[in-house]
Write a structure and sequence with these properties.
The structure is a homotetramer.
Chain A: E1 5-7, E2 11-18, H1 21-29, H2 41-53, E3 64-72, H3 73-79, E4 86-89, E5 100-102, E6 111-113, E7 120-122, H4 126-152, H5 157-160, E8 169-177, H6 178-188, H7 202-218, H8 220-228
Parallel strand pairs in A: 1-5
Antiparallel strand pairs in A: 2-3, 3-8, 4-8, 6-7
Helix pairs in contact in A: 2-8, 6-7, 7-8
């Protein structure tokens, strides 16, 4: 035991939201407060399918979702390339970071085949899994010990953190509207459909799958139209 | 009577929101669901004041507000220069536009004094008010009659609308987060404080004042900190 | 003669640019200054086609173009819905606007057939053209006369301009990067290909066609890949 | 010798640009091609100072700069929070990352004093410097050895990179316009002026200082107005 905590998961919680299929229709029709009344499902389906098919994306921007997400730093590095989102991440300048690290789980495919932009993955042998686990644990242990050494010597947190590996967990608040979220999902969930294949790294896909499940519950008609139009963001 | 409707107002309705002072604190601290509990007011005040003073704007982005707004086109033209917002405006390509026009009211100051960038306004004589009212009504009447003539002749709505004046009313859904809204308010409400004076056109200021009243009710501590820090957006 | 100037055109000038196919490759490869050397065409074609097909849009963002554009206000109203762009428009608050108005030309199809979102247009009879021309001229004349009356009476420019029709010309500087421009073109040039049909209003399409011609000259390989991938923005 | 390369610097190269003080004036005045002629300096100074003082930021958006930057990952993590910018970073999914690591130099102040949001830094003893250097080297060596072990065993690059520390160097292309750049500088260069103090981490400040030097050379009048107005971005 080295006192460090390892996990092969990510955490996604819905913190709050202002999102519904009805809101999409109200926005598309610019309804006043008085005109906002519950839409019949069949009408909503037709309208929302039309909006996605014809790439009228703006009505989806009025539905927002705020998530609490805990994921390794290498996931955040990809996540924050999505600029149509709001972020607040915990700060390694102001706090000592906890020794919690992501390690690939047994079901994480380890071997890359094919070429850049169209990789696929294969299982990996039990030896490869063992080497990975040992390498991660060995490095995390060394890194965190050195981090603590520097802190103990009075070195600033922002300097000491430089040795921490990108697999350390970090938490953030993320707010996206439904349009931005569909764009995120179209790029960060594997999809081999004809027009827009997508080959995300598995760990950000785990975050994206959690988002998609929540999105599907909050906006089932929009989600269905998104799927049926080939996972293309409007 | 010419069958046209004139008004000197704008309409702003809060359609929905996901905004509160507590949410700012939860975001700044990256609180998990379990950690989210009502904050004591005095602590909130200190934190929010610190965030605005030090320009940590991101915690304010997780609070969103959706408005239904009805205003003349010349207001929309200025409003849509604000890109950190989501818009759905009713379409003159798909619908016949109603004959509803903004005319300056009796309390609208008509005479500009001073120089570009720092205009101030004076009342205007009753003659100036009379000329303005007559000019507006005469033009709106002529324009709308010509619009209807073209429609009656089978000309497309998107072509016929070209003759309509920028004072015709149009409606839209507008979603902004609290950070973008503070930026909007800092530029679109008159303010002659030392650092960042602002000289908005009165009609967009009318929209902004409505926004500010709603914002103040939803997020009183944030609004207070915004005011006390000189109406500067973080 | 009424002293007003009518035209059926839009103006688009390339003011400056920092755009080339090579720059896309340098960005995709994160080349240092020393590594930047002219790429062979066949390699560039393969890389750029790959980037567009796989939706790697970011390498196209480092190529920017600045345009001077003169177009009627109803075109600007649509144009400014594109938020990934920078705008500076001449101000009707600070200057007296010139009496220059757009009127639909003889080749502007006037009659809309089909349904919302998938309109097509037909010629229009000579009578319809005549009514349109007369209606435009009559309204513009009345509006501009009233505008001048108010100015003559000392009413502020920002108030007087309210009567001007949306067909009056206005000028602006527009800067877009190649990614944003492809998005603009994908939505604002007619296209009836299978996946993403587009039905823009003719007048904004005239601006877009001008943009596309310039874009094609500056970045021929990128433009070709854009076309061959179905006019989809990456 | 461990075969790794250490450095205490960052690299910033100007790759290309379309930026000048004159362009700001042309944009502010919406000049046609014919009207674009070299402005007299004293006029430019007055106009640009006015624009910054009155927060008319849009004329600065038409001037863009593209940089090649090499910096440790912990700098990129802060840099990419700036969303008004375009990024292309080298990929650890497609390439094996080089063993080049940032270590704090002798002049890097190591000890943090004061409280959150207003930290200042003090030198640090030679012991603290020694501990820091040893801790960095020890961790980087261990991490890179484990990275290579996994690669040698056939583990995918995107998995193996998880052990690399945030102090490893990474390169990217960054394009910003002058308005976004001034915002970046206002937050990422230390400034203790009255209204908007700024306390950036030293390493991102090193990047920002390089940007500022280039910006000052390309747009000296804009830079001067930025400074004289208290380093506030318009």
């Amino acid at each position: 035991m080295d006192g460090l905590k390892y996990s092969s998961d990510v955490t996604v919680q819905l913190v709050k939201h202002s999102a519904s299929d009805e809101d999409v229709a109200f926005a598309a029709r610019v309804s006043t407060l008085g005109e906002r009344s519950l839409e019949k499902t069949e009408k909503l389906e037709g309208l929302i399918n039309f909006l996605i098919r014809e790439r009228h994306g703006s009505p989806f921007e009025h539905s927002t979702m705020t998530f609490y997400v805990k994921a390794p730093i290498f996931v955040w590095r990809e996540h924050m390339r999505h600029r149509m989102a709001s972020y607040n991440e915990e700060s390694g300048r102001y706090r000592v970071l906890e020794p919690e690290f992501y390690v690939p789980g047994k079901d994480r495919k380890l071997v890359q085949v094919g070429k850049a932009g169209a990789y696929t993955f294969e299982e990996g042998t039990s030896e490869q899994h063992a080497i990975t686990l040992v390498s991660y644990r060995r490095t995390c242990k060394e890194a965190y010990a050195n981090y603590m050494d520097m802190l103990a010597a009075g070195v600033a947190r922002e300097v000491a953190r430089g040795v921490l590996p990108v697999t350390i967990y970090s938490s953030a608040y993320v707010t996206m509207n439904a349009r931005a979220l569909m764009n995120f999902l179209s790029l960060r969930v594997s999809f081999e459909g004809s027009h827009f294949p997508s080959y995300p790294q598995r760990e950000i896909e785990m975050v994206a799958e959690n988002y998609e499940q929540i999105f599907k519950e909050l906006m089932p008609i929009t989600h269905k139209a998104f799927i049926e139009n080939g996972r293309v963001s409007p």
